[in-house]
Amino acid sequence: MKELVRQAGCEKQFVISSAAARTDELGNDMYPNAKAELKLHGIPFTHRHARQIKNSDYKDWDYIIAMDYENLDDINYVVRHDPEKKVRLLMSFAGENRSVSDPWYTRDFARAYADIYRGCEALLEEILKE
Fold it and tell me: Phi-psi region for residue 123, left (φ > 0), alpha (ψ -120 to 50) or beta?
């Protein structure tokens, strides 16, 4: 998403962050195969330390995006209620009611990248229409 925003020339209008819905990856950097897929597509990235989403994040963000239904449920549990409809599944922006293909189970990082790219393109398009 950061690279799409940069390419659109509107990075000063955005603050983009990532947070884990669960504790199992807290403090970990990005998975090596995910880094390799990003390098393949020329997408820059930096070292990361996963942090967990907090209830207070709800008021700070315009969108809270989940990659899959399990994360969507976890996020909804943390934020407790979503009166502004900020919590959404990424693929819903691309008109699909499904999760991003999970490379943890499939080992298909190319498919996960393609899903995320499509979802982020559609999300950016929706935001820029506002």
Answer: alpha
pLDDT per position as a tens digit, 22-42: 888 788 888 899 999 999 999
Burial string for 109-130 (b: 16+ CB within 10 Å, else e) reads beebbebbbbbbebbbeebeee
Strands (DSSP E) contained in 1-130 are: 64-66, 87-89
**What pTM was computed for the model?**
0.91
d(CA 112, CA 119): 11
Burial status of residue 38 (CB atoms within 10 A of its CB: 0-12, 13-18, 19 or more): middle
